[in-house]
User: Fold this.
Amino acid sequence: MEAGKQAINKRTGKKFEEGEAVTAEEMFWCASCRPCADGYPNHCEKLQELGFSCDGAFAEYVKVDSRYIWSLEELKRVYKGDDLFLAGSVVEPTSVAYNAVIERGGGIRPGDNAVILGGGPIGLAAVAIMKKAGASNVILSEPSEPRAKLGKLMGADHIINPLKENFTERVLDITGGLGAKLYLEATGLPDKVWADIEQSIWEGKMINSTVVIVARSDKKIPVTGEVFQVRRASIVGSQGHSGHGTFPRVISSMASGMDMTPLITKKVTLDKVPENIVLLRTDRTECKITCEFK
Amino acid sequence: MEAGKQAINKRTGKKFEEGEAVTAEEMFWCASCRPCADGYPNHCEKLQELGFSCDGAFAEYVKVDSRYIWSLEELKRVYKGDDLFLAGSVVEPTSVAYNAVIERGGGIRPGDNAVILGGGPIGLAAVAIMKKAGASNVILSEPSEPRAKLGKLMGADHIINPLKENFTERVLDITGGLGAKLYLEATGLPDKVWADIEQSIWEGKMINSTVVIVARSDKKIPVTGEVFQVRRASIVGSQGHSGHGTFPRVISSMASGMDMTPLITKKVTLDKVPENIVLLRTDRTECKITCEFK
Amino acid sequence: MEAGKQAINKRTGKKFEEGEAVTAEEMFWCASCRPCADGYPNHCEKLQELGFSCDGAFAEYVKVDSRYIWSLEELKRVYKGDDLFLAGSVVEPTSVAYNAVIERGGGIRPGDNAVILGGGPIGLAAVAIMKKAGASNVILSEPSEPRAKLGKLMGADHIINPLKENFTERVLDITGGLGAKLYLEATGLPDKVWADIEQSIWEGKMINSTVVIVARSDKKIPVTGEVFQVRRASIVGSQGHSGHGTFPRVISSMASGMDMTPLITKKVTLDKVPENIVLLRTDRTECKITCEFK
Amino acid sequence: MEAGKQAINKRTGKKFEEGEAVTAEEMFWCASCRPCADGYPNHCEKLQELGFSCDGAFAEYVKVDSRYIWSLEELKRVYKGDDLFLAGSVVEPTSVAYNAVIERGGGIRPGDNAVILGGGPIGLAAVAIMKKAGASNVILSEPSEPRAKLGKLMGADHIINPLKENFTERVLDITGGLGAKLYLEATGLPDKVWADIEQSIWEGKMINSTVVIVARSDKKIPVTGEVFQVRRASIVGSQGHSGHGTFPRVISSMASGMDMTPLITKKVTLDKVPENIVLLRTDRTECKITCEFK
Assistant:
């Protein structure tokens, strides 16, 4: 990494030291609009996105304002050589999940139960975060066999196959009739899974459950207001990974035992990137594919 | 009021003094089940309700455990004679609204905007509470003329007739393009008003809006997850009036300028109660009818 | 006001319109350090301050990044001509108080009591904010007669002269034995007033009180841990006025009835500024002196 | 256990099943006073305490209202035979620590650092809870060798001997210059350790730190307001173990990997209780002594 003369390292509050290992947010928030000034950069009105609205990181070098840069130095305790940067490459998706379950979902208290619906990269990252946060039971609902296996690897205590099992029965059975404090909708099929979520909240003894919607979908969600009234429950939407101290806490979590690298199921060289982007649209076997530079 | 020997007055922490004016919660929470022990009496698993599961208050005397009794002494500063008990009779519906907008909705900060949908007793009480809480604009959406007038009396800065006006246009016009921090669904027709709420959140510049559902309905609400993701918004359900210091704060609010008595549009004697209960099922002119004992 | 070509108006999310009336934060936060990136600009590690570390506003023109600019257009509803800018000149001190009692102190619920210790500009602004937020009783403790009068004008329900009256007795008497939810230390003499605050918390029935320290002092505060344990109370420190949507909410509050202009007790021309700055060091009669440009 | 006919098991919401293993809160809150009605039983105005104001549990049988009873059934997954009740005997002190760091301290986010000052039963329990909650580094400050060893066993990542090492230097070194999100004062010597806490907050880059006072002491704490202003920090007092869902979450945490039984350093029979109570007043080698019934 080459740092500009005025670039400040948030880790030290000073200039970057030579050889500092870093990662970058992918959202370039403007730091001037109303949401940014109020402390909500994920909702920047002038947002630029690396790889979308400006040139991306599939290149040997990329120029990023130091505002979006976070040090990976802490990870050197656990990851050596290239593994450091592999670990660094999953900080961003992990931060999307962290923003969803911790910042927006309000987290859990140690001993609470959490249910993650959908074993894509965000759902799987959420599994590890909920386990790290002290969940008594982290339950992953995911029909795909390889994703379910990955879920186990990320720390899920229980897997539900919602196509073969009764979701509510399993959730209540595992949690001794309580249900979960936090449900993460990470399937992108909210209309399909919503009845299950509501039934678990309705039949479980737990009040104050929060349902976090993190996956994007244009489907209407058929919400039963009464469930959220009687069970004192809430629904929150989540987007983004910036702000709220999320990136540095994800990095510190990874430096203290939360291993996210199993999310990377494949490593490719730069010239193989295009075909692998196409692949990910349909292939549910791979989870995250990281591009390596030798 | 006649107090039992062991009955403790929460106002003083001691025995009741002679002549203490009081009101009662209508929900008899058990104080022993999991939600009660955790501090959420509105969700008591063994709930008894005055006038529903146990004999009600349409009687000269009613016996209520001191646990549910709150002193009205503070109101003597503002209300004299019978007016004291008229004021006392609206503490309960006001507490339902207070629990919805303050406890469950998280309140507002001074200078925020609030939109109340539906001008029944709960919606109208919420108008007064939001004004007391420092809302810059309290907007009531209500098609009925007499209810709208009552809304003005309770402190609404603006009335929208959703049958004749474009809800979102009016909300954005009044709030300078911001929209509201808090929306209260108090119509009981969530399926009908939801699109309006979402459009205001979507088009307004305000992020972090909360929609509180307080009216009961068995209709499914067609929620667009993306609106709540992009605008960082939330939905919470609300029920009940107990716990969280709500009753005493409502009473203190009423003792310091929040006049809820306009909610009482009619006073009847005990023998007229049955016909007036029937009347309220259809009559949208009356708001709250209070039974007086001479 | 003349706006740069890229300057964005947070009110509209677009370029500034001609003639837009504005005010500015006085703290130039960097938007890049760890506290800024996390959403806490009041704690910026690279802070520049207008009039301190960079040239100030005692000049006909001053150049400020649009990041720190907030529109006063909303105030045109209430203030005309020069009064608009007089009102604008008190947005900053009001925001310091708002940050203290609302953002850091967590605000109050309608019907709660608040005690403000010290009737300087910040304490007096806090009086108005607590009243706007629905306090049942706002109590100002202030020995100076002119400041006490000003307190009444800003909305204080009760004044305590701590040199002549027993603070705790008065607080408990006014609040019916409860005490306050929020105490603001705005005297700069925390060692002198602390025993009074603790005694009120200890003897009052209210639990969950918060003491906010906003005035600067290098005196040690003799805290009795047990008071904060037994009464479930908290102490928070507060500094700054930036972030958290504070400026725009103060402006909206002022546009809807919270009149802060009585804080301005004197208006001077630019050439009289130096002598008046000297004057304010000792004169407890004047509160805020605003410099006018004709 | 023998259950009364009307006793409700909070685990099921129904009558107790035969052979249900349970533990009890030690605080008998009245469920009727203002703090209890508001949801804060730890601050009950009519509190009775088992073993203090009413006959205690050093007996073969003790009668306790079902309101204060929590099921240990979940622990059968991990503890067998007598070990189940040994585990049950540490639920209460663990709940005191949990109430302090989670309920009053607001918990931490995964990846945050925590410093526990004092390795008595509460401090040691807090070590385990902070580790369970995902702390990146849990640091225990404790001069006694056997207590420090026990701290390691409970999950402390680092031990500071404050009599031999520079507290602040060690904290900053371990946390990469950040300092901690949460400091727990569990020594009972707040006047002695306070300067260290403040220096760590002042010199660390972390803002928003919370200091929780859980140990009782009648010493004045010399608080520097400026530290809490500049670092956006807070102080909260904590007492008790009841309410807020604490007991059941402690039990669920213990059922999912948080082993608190190392806290029990000695088991005695009923007749040895008196001499061991005397012993604990001076002996810093033993931590928790549990009385066993054969």
In short: The longest strand of chain C covers residues 264-269. Residues 208 and 232 of chain C are 5 Å apart (CA to CA).
